[in-house]
Amino acid sequence: MSSVNIKWSRWFPLVPALALLTGILLVPLGKTLVDSVSTPAWTLKNYSNLFTDGVTMTVLGRTALTAATVTAIALLLGYPYAYLMTRVGPRARGILLVIVLIPFWTSVMARNFAWVIILQDGGPVQSLFELLGADHVVLYGTTAGVTIAMTQVMLPFMVLPLFSTLGSIDRRLLLAARGLGSSPTAAFWKVFWPLSRGGVMAGVVLVFTLSLGFYVTPALLGSPQESLVAQLLAQRTTLLLDFPAAGALGIVVLIVTLVLVAWANRVGGTVSAIGVVATSRPKDRP
Amino acid sequence: MTRETTVKATEPSSGTGLGTEIRLAGVTKDYGLASPAVDDISLTIEPGEFMTLLGPSGSGKTTTLNLVAGFETLTAGTISLNGADVGNVPPHRRNLGMLFQNYALFPHMSVAQNVAYPLRERKAGKEEIARKVADVLELVQLTGRDGDYPSQLSGGQQQRVALARAIVFEPKALLLDEPLGALDRNLRSALQVEIRRIHREVGSTFVFVTHDQEEAMNLSDRIALFNNGHIEQIGTPQQLYTEPETLFTARFLGDSNVFELGQAALDEKVAQDGESWIVEPGTVAAHPGVRASSAIVVRPEDVEVAGSRDAVPSGANAVRATVRDVEYMGSYRTLLLAMGAGGLPGRARTSALRGEYAIGDTVVIWWWPRAQRIVAA
Ligand SMILES: Nc1ncnc2c1ncn2[C@@H]1O[C@H](COP(=O)(O)OP(=O)(O)OP(=O)(O)O)[C@@H](O)[C@H]1O
Ligand SMILES: [Mg+2]
After folding, report:
1. What InterPro entries does this protein's entry cite (chain A) (predicted)?
2. I need a labelling partner for B226 at 20 to 30 A (CA). Which of A275, B50, B245, B349 fits?
């Protein structure tokens, strides 16, 4: 009996958190799910409509493409950046960390309006392009503009897990590879890159799934003709008041996300919400 | 049968002749610490030689090896392989085998993939790789563990994988940084035999780092004894043991009884109080430091024990001692002594046949002057 008591007392501290999660996540989610198949009648019509209404699939595709582009750019920028962070002294590392975290500390509104000013017609970006000889480059109101602004916000989610993974790789392995006949490039691709895969997967999944749900940035910087899925959801709930249809769309996005996370878990390692990474492959023992 | 397969694997390069000549001249590496990690070392390792870098922890052995391999840049001096200065040659073009002190196995590759790595980098064929990997794993007694990952192996097994990976491509020169450090005694001596055999068969130059003097004595053609970033003495194991130049060398290799003479001229240390100090010219080290400060060194096996001064033959050197402890070593026993007026710690070997001694006994130890060595202190 005492072992039962111990078990209970061990779980007890989780009770408030579990209660909160049930109240604010599981209950509304369950209700959304039930509503989406029961209103106005018990059918899957709300779901089949998503495929046939001619809008949802286009928007979902565009959202996925935008999220993928953001993820790819963030990886291309973030990997060398994180690598640099592991190679410099503690002072420089601190500075690099602050730079990457600044978008975190800026209010969403301030950040997005800053992008509006930078990207708008006659703004500094356009002037810069004009200096370079490209006339009238319009980024404001385009998916390209949205992608740029989203990448800035997403960069920390790429850099932080990468930094923790790259920093934990034993650099002497690179020397060993060189000693065994690898050029520096070969040593990177055969030893360093595979060992960093866990961090890459964590960053990619985090950035991609978060990018799927972006609302404010596309709403402010994008064009209504090129809306993303979060805008579509907002439209259906606030303008059309069609909650069951919006619920169905939300559930579909959720399923896509979960499938992605499960896949990443299988191939890349364990991904936790904050992006701390435990690679599935064992580390070298000292 | 086992032997036959492994011999075949190593045969091709034994036909291709000698190993690399490694020449270090004035080699210095300064990390900006109080003293350079490696300080003005000059050393020529002959093709096919088994050279051991021996020395206490922090004496610069690994640093020297890293300089030869190209992982560190020289502060001063030159390193040449087969007469060609390799100062600007990157590590992967030096074609040296290297075994790291910390093994440095690739954690994302299986044992077989780790061992195959240098062969893949040299674009060996699939069948050749499979055959050589199997042979070398048999050599290090890890057959059947091909598919395991490094984290699934014990420290000693990891070390053997690292050894297999370093020798599998039969490099012309092999740099081994304490390759047997983590192994138990039996495996260690078994692999020592294997390493010697591989060395004989492959004919490469071996540079072997250890801080185990017994291992160094067993394996080496020559030993370079490191101390505090410089080389204290280079020579065959025999030379280092019987003809040490300095007190450091005498103390590092084997046990010794030491009588420090300080600045006193050798001939002033004359007989007094039943002691005798005869010096034979041939036993004085050539080291220039001997005149300034020296010590007499006698090995325990060269020391005889007598009950009294009368039992010491004339012409022998002698000193009084008290027995502090007796170690029974099987065929012989070692007396731990307090020697002379100062009670210096000393050792002498004896056997039951020559008389029993107990703790607290006062004895006279004696030795022939030709058995002692006068070294720089
Ligand atoms: N990368 C480095 N940066 C600064 N100092 C170093 C570095 N590597 C080695 N040293 C210093 O150089 C000296 C020699 O080190 P080294 O590793 O060559 O010793 P070692 O003879 O191999 O010792 P051990 O038997 O413990 O392996 C040490 O005092 C060490 O602190
Ligand atoms: Mg070392």
Report:
1. MetI-like, MetI-like_sf
2. B349
Judge: A176–B107 Cβ closer than 8 Å, yes or no.
Answer: no
Residue A248 lies in a domain: yes
Q: Give the start-to-end residue ranges of the domains of chain B.
A: 2-242, 255-376
3-class state of residue B234 by DSSP: strand
CATH number of the domain residue A116 falls in: 1.10.3720.10
Fold of B2-242: Rossmann fold (3.40.50)
- The torsion angle over the Cα atoms of residues B283, B287, B291 and B297, rounded to 10 degrees, is -40
B90: chain A residues, CB-CB within 8 Å: 178, 183-184
- A280 touches B: beta carbon within 8 Å: no
Q: Is residue A7 part of a domain?
A: no
Query: Cα of B331 to ligand 2 centre, how many Å?
Result: 36
Q: What angle do CA A271, A192, B126 make, to 5 degrees?
A: 110
Instruction: Please indicate, yes or no, if residue A167 is contained in any of the structural domains.
Output: yes
Pairing of strands B222-227, B50-54: parallel
Confidence of residue A277 (pLDDT cuts 50, 70, 90): very low
A180, B95: Cβ pair inside 8 Å? no
Which residues crowd ion ligand 2, with CB under 5 Å? Answer: B 62, 101
Question: How far does the CA of residue B154 sit from the closest CA of chain A (Å)?
Answer: 9
Q: Rounded to whole angstroms, how far apart are CA atoms A260 and B226?
A: 58
**Within its chain, how far is the Cα of B34 from the centroid?**
26
**Residue B56: nearest ligand to its CA?**
1
Report which protein residue has its CA nearest ligand 1's atom 28: B58
* Beta strand B257-262 pairing with B294-298: antiparallel
User: What digits encode the pLDDT tens for the residues A49-100?
Assistant: 888 888 888 888 889 999 999 999 999 999 999 999 999 999 999 999 999 8
Residue of A180, A200, A283 best to disrupt the B interface, most CBs of B under 10 A: A180
Nearest CA to ligand 1 atom 6: B31
Residue B24, pLDDT > 80, answer yes
Domain holding A254, by residue range, is 44-280
Given the cut 0.85, state whether the ipTM is greater than it: no
CATH assignment of B255-376? Answer: 2.40.50.140
Domains B2-242 and B255-376 share a fold: no
Q: How many domains does chain A have?
A: 1
Label residue B53 by pLDDT band (50, 70, 90): very high
Q: For ligand 1, pick from B61, B65, B66, B228 the residue to mutate: most ligand atoms within 8 Å of CB.
A: B61
Whether residue A284 lies within 8 A of chain B, CB to CB, comes out as: yes
pLDDT > 70? residue B273: no
Residue A285 has pLDDT above 70, yes or no: no
Taking CA–CA distances from B154, the nearest residue in chain A reads A285
* Residue A15 included in any domain: no
Q: Give the mean pLDDT of A7-14.
A: 81
Task: Give a three-class secondary structure readout of chain A.
Answer: CHHHHHHHHHHHHHHHHHHHHHHHHHHHHHHHHHHHHHCCCCCCHHHHHHHHCCCHHHHHHHHHHHHHHHHHHHHHHHHHHHHHHHHCCHHHHHHHHHHHHHHHHCCHHHHHHHHHHHHCCCCHHHHHHHHCCCCCCCCCCCHHHHHHHHHHHHHHHHHHHHHHHHHCCCCHHHHHHHHCCCCHHHHHHHHHHHHCHHHHHHHHHHHHHHHHCCCHHHHHHCCHHHCCHHHHHHHHHHHCCCHHHHHHHHHHHHHHHHHHHHHHHHHHCEECCCCCEECCCCCCCC
Q: Which two tokens stand for residue B362?
A: 């006062």
Using CA atoms, how far residue B367 sits from B298, B304, B323, B327, in Å, is 8, 6, 17, 21
